[in-house]
Amino acid sequence: MNQKGFANIILIIIVVAIVAIGGYFVLSKKLTTPPVTQPQTLNGEPNQGQGASYVPEEGRIQVLFPEGGEKLEVGKTYNIQWDNYSDGAEPLTIFLSAVSEDNRVVYSEKLAVNVPAKKSGVFSWAVSQPSFNGYKVEIYPEGGRELVGRSKDFFTITGGKPLAVNPPEPSKPLQTENLIVSIPLANQAVSNPITIKGKARSIFFEGEFMVKLLGYDYPLGHPKYAESSRVITSASARIVSDCDWITGQWCDFEAVMNYPSSGTRVENMLYFYDGGQGDPGTSAAPKFVAALPIKLK
CB count, 10 Å around CB of 83? Predict the structure, then answer.
């Protein structure tokens, strides 16, 4: 073999070695790079704007009224309006929530469920809610929250009775004009079932009123704290002894509430409502009275 042939062989060996080393590093990178996963909320669902279920703003329901900035009055009826429900297959839910200045949900309720699916629609709402400075409406199909549409900004409700919504200090009882909750105390850790005791007046109907357990998927101060609220379960609080609730006397009450294991969230709150018997969205619907933070064991 002459010198030129030997040099060619050496050159070929070097090229093969370089290709082999390069291929090794490429394959190694593929094997060691973790797969990209979609960000998840604490309840396991993709964040709005992330993941396979993400729907761009222009593809979601558009809330036309109240859009934000309006001043609604208690006792009047308004038309909640929406557009752009392109799916149109599943009935809609209309949800109302109010937040305090520190972005804490202080009032929430479903104004309507099973609203007929229409691309553009109207729901007649008789305003009877308490007065807060920060309300928003959400509209969504129950099985497709990725299509949710919201008021773009907060609107206000005036003419209702302002409520003291700040929860009591830790280990203190909840006290309002018509409600005293002695068990549980604020931020107290409770076991399943939850026993709720206290005194109330002027909020009973047929000797009962409603208590709801809400859960939040995010801590206070998180941008999604308000919208993450969910009703976990509810129970009726009933008078436990002979008492003339009709005349507005203080009456002892008790409620026992069972909650599912999935009910434990980052934060939990008991919501107290009066005994209103009307449908959601009507003037006779149950009205919010007070809120009490608790911790589920």
Answer: 14
